[in-house]
Specification:
Elements (H helix, E strand, L loop, with lengths): L1 H16 L2 H11 L24 H7 L3 E8 L27 H9 L28 E10 L5 E4 L1 H4 L4 E5 L5 E10 L4 E6 L23 E6 L7 E12 L9 E4 L11 E3 L5 E8 L10 E5 H14 L5 E2 L2 E5 L2 H7 L7 E6 L4 H5 L6 E5 L2 E2 L3 H9 L6 E8 L2 E8 L1 E2 L19 H9 L2 E6 L2 E7 L4 H4 L7 E5 L2 E2 L3 H13 L4 E8 L2 E8 L4
Antiparallel strand pairs: 1-2, 1-4, 2-3, 3-6, 4-5, 5-6, 7-8, 7-10, 8-9, 9-12, 10-11, 11-12, 13-20, 14-15, 15-16, 16-17, 16-18, 18-19, 21-22, 22-23, 23-24, 23-25, 25-26
Helix pairs in contact: 10-12
């Protein structure tokens, strides 16, 4: 008994210090009933800064965003939104019928987009037999958004351009018939209007002041990718003023929010729920999103949409001159301090510019007192001027600036006329030909003018793109018909201390200017 009494005090200490396994052993050794409760570590919890949610913005703007379905008599192009599918080099129709991607898009993407096993010449809804009248068939789908409470909707021109009937689907599933109010191919914008019979007031959004948008700002894109209905993605403004070669008015916002086929015409919002851009294109080697999307900025869309809503068309100002950028070499050849402005390659016949006295070789440096940055800047600003208005155009000519008053015309056609010449041939002087050879070129005078017969591949002329077969029509804005006349102009430029001369050349692709060094030979 004494031994047991002596052991009990040491048992209390053991309970306080021993492990669970050791405790159980002590209890078993002493005969005390064992009841052990295991303890666990707490769940992981990290106290991190909370990132702002986009949920409030999305909740507010989603009722204003719609899906746009387009029907027409035309054969479906499978190119509804300027995006195309490519699955390892195979088109959608080449995939097996049991391919999971094919099953997915049939179920969720709307089988009206794909021919599947219906044959190459018959689209979804084309169930006509011999003698039946043609049926409208779905040929495109995209996105859009309400811009007014009475039902005006903005979308892309390329979504609706071939359509005969239009349906808009709201985020709650409501389908409404719509009519085309107007479209503008140059900016890829279009306006629809829901049926006048629907008198409801729609939730609508407004355009933002995109001049306040900075690279790195958050944006939210809402649209109808792959026919899935209201889908939200987020990203940032990656760049401003992007020129993707789609037209003279390119001035896109680049965003990295996921934009895919079917997002065309959908809005990109700032965090205040205002539209900063309208999604129109993506850059993608694969046909899917790679994080480079382009949106028409609100500043461009605002005026175009207003004109379409009012008149169903856009009347643009027209100057009527073919222009090209002013490089550093060209600026040096003309004595310009800055490589800026727009170099006139050729005024179009009977155009406002030609009638006012603008000549080839002029550099348009300012419009209404504001400097012209480059040809795109000039094209956009002239387009925004109301036809019939007289404006001041500053040009650099013969080494000095002068102002010409021009009455702006109305832009009617899409094409820009190329410059042509009807210069007669003239004999060339052998000494002058040798001098031109020192510049890396040889010329031949003929019935069609002064033709470049050869170009030294190691010359500056070759580096600047001059090629055999090009025709030289002027040097420093002076018409030339022979090698001798070319050299006279060059010598005059050398006496004026210039290191370069401005050559105007005709190629199979049109007319352009290039500056060649003349301080050698």
């Amino acid at each position: 008994m004494a031994k047991i009494s002596a052991f009990r005090p040491s048992l209390k200490a053991a309970l306080q210090t021993t492990t669970v396994a050791g405790l159980a052993a002590v209890m078993l050794a002493t005969g005390i009933p064992a009841r052990v409760t295991e303890s666990y570590a707490e769940a992981v919890s990290v106290q991190a800064p909370q990132v702002a949610s986009f949920a409030d913005v999305v909740q507010a703007v989603s009722p204003a965003v719609v899906s746009v379905r387009v029907e027409s008599d035309a054969k479906p192009s499978n190119d509804e939104s300027n995006f195309s599918f490519n699955f390892g080099g195979r088109g959608f129709d080449e995939l097996p019928d049991d391919h999971p991607l094919k099953r997915f898009f049939r179920e969720f993407g709307g089988q009206d987009q794909f021919r599947g096993d219906r044959g190459p010449d018959r689209g979804f809804g084309d169930r006509r037999g011999p003698g039946r009248k043609p049926h409208l068939r779905p040929t495109a789908q995209g996105s859009g958004f309400f811009i007014s409470e009475d039902g005006y909707i903005v979308t892309n021109n390329h979504v609706v351009s071939d359509g005969s009937a239009f349906t808009v689907v709201m985020n709650d599933g409501t389908e409404l018939k719509a009519t085309l109010v107007g479209k503008d191919s140059r900016t890829d914008l279009a306006v629809l209007k829901v049926d006048e019979k629907d008198k409801r007031k729609f939730t609508y959004v407004s355009f933002a002041d995109d001049s306040q948008i900075r690279v790195g700002d958050w944006v939210v894109a809402v649209g109808n990718p792959f026919g899935l209905g209201g889908t939200v993605t987020a990203g940032i403004i990656s760049a401003r003023g992007r020129d993707i070669g789609s037209g003279p008015y390119d001035d896109y916002l680049q965003v990295d929010a996921a934009v895919n086929r079917g997002n065309s015409g959908g809005p990109t919002f700032n965090l205040n729920g205002q539209v900063v851009g309208i999604n129109t294109a993506i850059f993608s080697p694969s046909g899917g999103n790679v994080g480079i999307a382009f949106a028409i900025p609100a500043s461009v869309a605002k005026g175009v949409v207003a004109n379409l809503m009012k008149d169903g068309k856009v009347d643009r100002g027209w100057l009527g001159v073919q222009i090209q950028p002013v490089s550093r070499d060209i600026a040096d050849s003309l004595g310009l301090a800055d490589a800026a402005g727009a170099l006139v390659v050729e005024p179009q016949a009977d155009s406002p510019g030609a009638k006012a006295g603008i000549k080839k070789g002029d550099v348009i440096t300012a419009l209404e007192g504001e400097p012209v940055k480059d040809p795109r800047d000039l094209a956009r600003r002239v387009a925004d001027i109301a036809p019939g208005k007289t404006v001041d155009v500053a040009v650099w000519r013969d080494g000095k600036s002068q102002t010409i008053k021009v009455e702006i015309g109305t832009l009617a056609g899409e094409a820009i006329q190329a410059a042509t010449t009807t210069d007669d041939a003239a004999p060339a002087d052998e000494t002058s030909e040798q001098a031109l050879a020192d510049l890396g070129i040889s010329v031949t005078a003929g019935d069609d003018g002064l033709t470049v017969s050869s170009v030294d591949p190691d010359s500056d002329a070759s580096d600047r793109g001059l090629k055999e077969g090009d025709r030289i029509t002027s040097v420093n804005n002076q018409t030339v018909k022979s090698a001798d006349e070319v050299m006279k102009v060059i010598e005059a430029a050398r006496k004026d201390g210039r290191s370069k001369a401005l050559f105007q050349v005709e190629t199979k692709d049109g007319s352009r200017f290039l500056a060649l060094p003349i301080d050698q030979g």
